[in-house]
Amino acid sequence: MSAGCHDTGVGAGADLVQVPRVALVGSPNAGKTSVFNGLTGLRARTGNYPGVTVSRFVGSCRVGGQRYVVEDLPGLYGLEPVSPDERITVDVLDGRLEGVPRPDAVLIVVDATTLRRSLGCVAQVLGRGLPACVVVTFTDELARRQGRLDVEALGQALGVPVVAVVGHRGYGVSELRELMGGWRAWTAPALAPPTDPAERDAWVESVLAFADYRAPERHRVTRRVDDVLLHPVWGTLVFFAVMVLFFQTVFTLAAPLQDGVESLFARLAELVAERVGPAWLAGLLGDALIGGVGGVLVFVPQIVLLFLLLALLEGVGYMARAAFVMDRVMARFGLEGRAFVALLSSFACAVPGIMATRTLPSARDRLATMMAAPLMTCSARLPVYVLLIGLLVEPSRKVGPFGAQGLVMFGLYLLGAVSALLAAWVFKRIGDRRGQPVPFYMELPPYRLPAPRAVLVAMWSSARAFLRKCSTVIVGTAVVLWLLLNLPLQSTAHLRAAGVDTGDPVAVSAYSVDHSYAAGLGRAVAPVFEPLGFDWRVNIGVLSAQGARETFVATLGQVAAAEDPEDPARALREMTYSDGPRAGEPVFTAPTVAALLVYFVYALQCMATVAVLRRETGTWRWPVIAFSYLTALAWVMAWLARTVTVLAGG
Amino acid sequence: MGGVQRALAELEPGARGSVSEVVGGEVPAVARRLADLGFVPGAVVEVVRRAPLRDPVVYRVKDYEVCLRRAQAACVYVVEGQP
């Protein structure tokens, strides 16, 4: 087995043929991730275990000259799995998972403050017979809460190496690395821990007594804060206050930053218009790239802020409380409290929302939540809503003390959220027809001041996904769209023959757009969208938004650019059908705008979401199902919205 | 000592008891998981608080806090008292 390895431990000559694999196991809140980050320095590859909805984290670390592959296995409480994630961990430990080699050694991560419970799991893992080392985390918190643990004695009692690591402070990580270097020489327990639950319980007590363990005092702050936050009346009030503040902060704090980004891109566009010679290049750079990407990057401050708040609430421990408070409500829809947190994240973007479903132990809950997450009003819909609501409702109109525009916006958020819950309910009902339900349990960790680094890392990893979407999907769509709108090039002779005044750039541009490939495409799909009242230009907008919703705004901007690129809304308001039975009538009537808004509430127009669904579920089946059901639903609901608005005399 | 055996789900916040039995009902995985979470015979359980909508409920067992829904708490039987 150790062919090619002549010396054990930290060899000077790197053994590149056989890289030892070290796996991290432990319960979900034990601090596995910060130990993993401490060892691998955030250079983790994320992927999926073959064929299942379970994400996989693999990194590497170097001790001496030797490289180690470190794998962060899904959290578990015991080796008798109740969820697919736990089954993966057990199968990997037993070397039964195809395509994933059995680890050479395991690091068992335990939270010092919950040692009395965690040692049961340690006993089960030690029973698997792999070289093992126990990593004790949160020893700082144990000491703060008047607890006590003799780490060395714990090692003697368990018969394996034990090291204390406070991951987020980096304390103990170098000792752990050193220990890993000598994994071949790790001691094994003289006697395997008992397997019978009652005997195991007695074994745990004897180990704790030997290690001079004293459990931590109850966390007073947590108890007092929970007295308020989980109070039937105050708790509910605080919950709603947190939710309101959450959105308020995001929208008000981000506004000045957004203005900054906006003016930066406006300035860039000006520069391009002034400096870049050929008109076509200026158009491509200015309209397609700067206009398209700038229109989306405007939302970066808001999204980053949203992710920062989510990471903070999670790090402090409020998210577990929010899940606890909302569990009963979510249970009505067949879900559990943690699904609420995932859906809440989807208000920022469905991509992190779908990733947040990883905390759900039940695979069926996970799938139902993932199928519902794209219905939550993500920030990409916001620019579309703002544009369309502007076409639908006068800014000055009021209903009681509230602005009518704000109410429509609120209504759309509500429609999305209610639809998401109903969709989750339907998918859960379908899934529940087979298999056993997973019992509900959730730890309520004490409130902790999160390490700023951990919060920033969590924020950045979510924001990065959004930025990647901007730089790939949206840039690509913007360029393709620009080409479609500007090709074929119309020769002067052809324009004259068509009766266009070639001296008038607006007329030339309008003619070119109306005879472009894009127009052809828009007209080709017209039969599909005709019942919804969309004309070819709206069709192009909807088609281009298929990659990313925000593109709709940029597209209509590009289409309307011939008239007024700075204020597409005004140009749009005056837009009329250029052909067909409704020729000459205005396009953006109340029924059409209502249909468009509702279409955007339901349709899955986001390639990033499709990609993350593929990645998280490990098959194309679920993204295809989500895309089909949401697109069909979007059309039907949009048609209903149009019909109702027409009947209401809009 | 030696009180009556009651389901954990029937206890009011503030009550304490020691686990006498964990039953899984139709799903044996539930009993095993409850044992992994610390609900083993002899363990002391305290009812900490109910959610504002009365379900789930936070329990303190083995020095940590975990919440269970009524359905799961009904699988755990305890003997009330101050051990």
From TrEMBL, chain B:
Keywords: Iron
UniProt key word Iron: yes
Keyword Aminoacyl-tRNA synthetase applies: no
Domain of life: Bacteria
Domain named Ferrous iron transporter FeoA-like: residues: 6-80
Protein name (Swiss-Prot/TrEMBL): FeoA family protein
